[in-house]
Amino acid sequence: MARINLEKIKHSYSSAAEGVQEYALKEINAVWKDGGSYALLGPSGCGKTTLLNIISGLLAPSEGKILFDDKDVTHMSTSDRNIAQVFQFPVVYDTMTVFDNLAFPLRNRGFSEAEILPRVNEIAKMLELEDSLKKRAARLTADGKQKISLGRGLVRKDVSAIMFDEPLTVIDPHLKWKLRSKLKELHQRLGITMIYVTHDQTEALTFAEQVVVMHDGLVVQTGTPVELFEHPKHTFVGHFIGSPGMNILPAENVNGEIGFAGNSIKIASVKAPKNIEGKLEIGVRPEFIRFDNDNDPNSIPVEITKVSDLGRFRIVEVKHEKQLIKLISPEQDIIPSESPRIIFDADKTRLYADSWVVN
Amino acid sequence: MSIELKGLVKRKDAETHIYETNLKLSKGGFNVLLGTTLSGKTTLMRLMAGLEKPTKGEVWFNDENVTGIAVQKRSVAMVYQAFVNYPSHSVYDNIASPLKVAGVSKAEIKSRVESIAELLKLGPMLKRMPAELSGGQQQRTALARALVKNAELVLLDEPLANLDYKLREELRDELPKLFAGSGATVVYATSEPMEALLLGGHTATLHEGRVIQYGVTADIYREPNNLTSATVFSHPPINTTFVDKKGAELFIRGVACCTVDERFKGLADGKYILGVRPHHLTPFSTDQHSIKIEGEVKVTEISGSDSVIHIRFGDGNWVSESHGIHPYKVGELIDLYINIKQCLLFDEQGELVKV
User: What is the value of ipTM here, to two decimals?
Assistant: First the structure.
């Protein structure tokens, strides 16, 4: 097991990189603690898979260093780094039994059969594969095969880290939550550093203690799910995390008062807005907007354009002038039918200048 | 165009893929087929399209029996989960292809392709090749090709499944709006309950080759007519347990007891199945009618604003979904509250007990 240290990692796939745009990774600095669970989250093309490949040793970075504890592993192979990997699609030996598949990484490393037996049984039990141990892997369903892949990643106790590259893509949605819970449970029990790459915020937020949000070759924020939800440092994080994402509204600074389309907006975290420069935007999550029932002077008149009933809550789409705003209204709440007005929670509303949060 | 399936059956060799199905979809509506993998969604769509012949029964478009009519002669467009585009044709030619086949004039093709590309935000991509597009743009191209035909029936088979989460969210929002003005009848297959709710319209729940229930999406969610429909339409899964009703009291697995909810006062004594949706089981009490139960935490999943707690309750696995951050540890014993006012009750055969 190891602490992972990324020092000024940059990567370009073209040999003569000219200008900053050519870099798939622009500059990454991070320290990930031993035994932690991390998710690399971002859309296609954000650089998350490049970063994963650099950590696992499939790719050497163009610039920068990677350390496991204090050892420089920048140019070491995957096996020398002692990393286990689980990929998007199951990698199993169809003709071998489930047991032999799970034992394979241990036999490869020269463990004795006496050591292998209890460990394979333990992992099989955790993944609910005990009853299939004697079956050939070919006879399992896609889900079953991916469980074997997960098991092969988890079976060795001596690895520096386990890397997961979108491991639940092939899994039926009804089983996804089960395997996700299983992985989280296994992390809590085994205490091995786990790094999980995904574009799916639900997977990232539920699996990881720390979520690393990537955008355009940069890490825009690393934080706990709560931090990312309540304090997005960048409008991209606000938009990407949460479903629907944060409302990002054009803002103006009128003599130190923040306004949106002529309405004064209270933002508790911003004390002296007078000196703020750059393109200003107000960010407020749909969860932190409510209908005003008390004629609050700060409420904003809106027109309701769409209501989606999701059972647990409703997503209400409203319009103020030409700006669409989404808010979440709990199952029991009443949506006003006449001249609705909305109000933002001042403690949870953020101000952004040139996309970065203002404090 | 309205579509009606009359006594439709599909068998392949000894296996029945679709059991006898009667279903009528109204003209211009948005219809969701909701079910897990292998529940029969794709087969049902292929039967509607005419890509497969039914073993028994008929398919009607408006007042016409189209059962024997080939797919090319039906006014149908279909979009699949995998992005199907012609790799050697530009985006423009991809979108234009069904119009060229239909012999539409060049000038009209140009105006129709451009306006649909505008709608799907593909305007600047028209000269590119599919391989130069992102996954989302490729699927938009496939959607544009389906839309440009102005087909009366549009079949979308999990069209967003291969896309990034955020893109899916965006397109899910756009799709019903795109079709709203077109007059096309849309059928959309998905395995995700949340997606069905977001899309709205009507939903048919499917399970093992049978249509279980059909109606307004939110109504089916709120009032599933049986346990199967409730299970298909619940994610995380609905919690269930046998309960005993004795007089004015309801006994849950011998570990909890409560006064029978107003709704079920007139019910005969006996065994029932209680259905508790995960968000009606919370780590805090919601009102004075909540019933307290104790469970052992198996795992807690936290998203930004919500917690999903998996617990062991009696000899079953239950799930709670609630607002707020509740970071319980594995193995911890915790109290949870069932909001009995919101629960569903089924008889021993799994049929909903109507009030």
Answer: 0.83
